[in-house]
Design a protein that fits this description.
Order of helices and strands: EHEHEEHEHEEHEHEHEH
Protein name: Glucosamine-6-phosphate deaminase
GO molecular function, one term: glucosamine-6-phosphate deaminase activity
Strand content: 15-25%
Keywords: Hydrolase
EC number: 3.5.99.6
Number of strands: 10
Enzyme class: hydrolase
Shape: globular
Number of domains: 1
Number of helices: 8
Radius of gyration: 17 Å
Structural class: alpha/beta
Length: 239
C-alpha cells in the first residue's frame, strides 16, 4: 500500500485525477469504476472540462460498483448521484455506463472479466470504515459481487436508518476489488481522521471492513492533512 498525504482536498483530488487520466489515455479499451459521495465531488469538478466531448475519451467504459435499487426500479441513489455529479455534466454516453442491478449482479464480475477487467477504481472510506457497500459486521470478505437484504445490514448497523423503498443492497465484494489493476482510495476531512487512523493501524477485521483492502497488490491511498492528522510519524514511515 502506498500512502500519499496532500495538504488539502484540492491537491488530493488533483493527484487522483492524474491517476485516472493516465489510465484513461491507454491505447486500449479502458474500464474504470468511480465512487459517489461527498469526497470525490471536487475531483469530478476538475475532470469534467478535461473529459467532456473529448474524442480521446469517448470509448472509456464506466462501471458502478454498488447500488440500493428502489422498489419497482432497476436503479437507486448511487446511479442518480453519479449522473448528477459526473456522467451528465461530462456528457458520458449512457451506452458506456454499466450499472449493477438485481438482474445482473450474479454475472457482473464475469462481465467485467470478459471486458478485460477494471483498470482503475476510485473508492472512498466510509465514516465507520466501510468500503463500497461493505459495512461493519456484515461484510463478506470471501465474496465477489453479492446481494443482501438491507434489513440484515440495518440489524447490525442501526445508525444507518431505514430504507423501506430500498430493500436490497448490492455491492462488489473484497474479491472483486482485489482483481482491479489499480485500486485508489481518497479520504479527506477531520471527521474521517479517527476512522482513517484505525484503517491504517488495525489488522484486517470486520469492524473496519476497509482494512481488507490493505492486502491489495497495487493500492494507493490519497488523503489530506486533516484526515491524516491523527497518524503518527511511525504510521507514515511504516507504509
Amino acid at each position: 500500500m502506498k500512502l500519499v498525504i496532500e495538504k488539502d482536498v484540492k491537491a488530493m483530488s488533483e493527484n487522483a485525477m492524474y491517476i485516472l487520466l493516465g489510465a484513461m489515455l491507454q491505447d486500449k479499451r479502458v474500464n474504470i469504476s468511480l465512487t459517489s459521495g461527498r469526497t470525490p465531488r471536487q475531483l469530478y469538478e476538475m475532470m469534467i472540462p478535461l473529459v467532456k466531448d473529448q474524442k480521446k475519451f469517448k470509448d472509456i467504459e464506466y462501471y458502478l460498483f454498488d447500488e440500493n435499487p428502489f422498489i419497482d426500479e432497476q436503479y437507486g441513489t448511487n446511479w442518480a448521484e453519479m449522473k448528477e455529479m459526473f456522467f451528465e455534466p461530462a456528457h458520458i454516453d449512457e451506452t458506456h455506463i454499466h450499472r449493477i442491478t438485481l438482474d445482473n449482479w450474479i454475472d457482473y464480475d464475469w462481465q467485467i472479466r470478459q471486458a478485460g477487467g477494471l483498470d482503475v477504481m476510485i473508492i472512498g472510506l466510509g465514516h465507520d470504515g466501510h468500503f463500497c457497500g461493505n459495512c461493519p459486521r456484515c461484510t463478506q470478505f470471501d465474496s465477489y459481487t453479492y446481494c443482501m437484504e438491507y434489513k440484515d445490514k440495518l440489524a447490525v448497523n442501526p445508525t444507518y436508518g431505514e430504507r423501506p423503498r430500498q430493500p436490497y443492497t448490492i455491492t462488489m465484494g473484497a474479491k472483486s476489488l482485489m482483481r482491479v489493476q489499480h485500486l485508489v482510495m481518497i479520504v479527506n476531512g477531520k471527521e474521517k481522521a479517527e476512522i482513517f487512523k484505525r484503517f491504517i493501524e488495525e489488522p484486517v477485521n470486520e469492524e473496519v471492513p476497509a482494512t481488507i483492502l490493505k492486502l491489495h497488490p497495487n493500492f494507493t491511498v490519497i488523503c489530506d492533512d486533516e484526515a491524516a492528522s491523527l497518524l503518527s510519524i511511525e504510521d507514515e514511515s511504516r507504509l
